[in-house]
């Protein structure tokens, strides 16, 4: 099956998947680690109120960062399994200017794609 415009996931769905799936995996990793008998001596300290949330949060961040680093080297099926989608969501740029930028005389100022004003030399070389 090929992906078409009608079967492709929306960017919103992709962004939700790429948030939810690593969260589930990170939480599962912490749960599995809590079952390891060798960690029983520190289990109560790590899973006490407040610390548990921190441990789960760190596990989620580490899971996500590790797989994002590995992502360019992985097949798409594995990326889907560990991150929820083989593509990152796209975020559309705003169409048109949000506000017009003018100089002190009220003339429009051109800006580059980052919103930085483009300084144009209005004089000629040697004019002083």
UniProtKB/TrEMBL annotation:
Alphabetic keyword roster: Membrane, Transmembrane, Transmembrane helix
Keyword Membrane assigned: yes
The species this protein was found in: Rarobacter faecitabidus
Name by which UniProt lists this protein: Uncharacterized protein
Domain of life, per lineage: Bacteria
Segments passing through the bilayer: 20-39, 51-70
């Amino acid at each position: 099956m090929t992906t078409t415009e009608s079967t492709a996931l929306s960017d919103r769905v992709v962004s939700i998947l790429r948030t939810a799936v690593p969260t589930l995996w990170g939480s599962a990793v912490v749960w599995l680690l809590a079952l390891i008998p060798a960690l029983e001596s520190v289990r109560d300290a790590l899973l006490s109120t407040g610390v548990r949330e921190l441990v789960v949060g760190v596990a989620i961040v580490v899971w996500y960062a590790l797989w994002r680093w590995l992502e360019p080297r992985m097949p798409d099926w594995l990326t889907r399994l560990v991150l929820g989608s083989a593509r990152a969501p796209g975020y559309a740029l705003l169409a048109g200017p949000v506000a017009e930028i003018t100089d002190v005389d009220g003339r429009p100022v051109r800006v580059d794609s980052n919103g930085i004003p483009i300084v144009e030399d209005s004089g000629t070389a040697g004019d002083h």
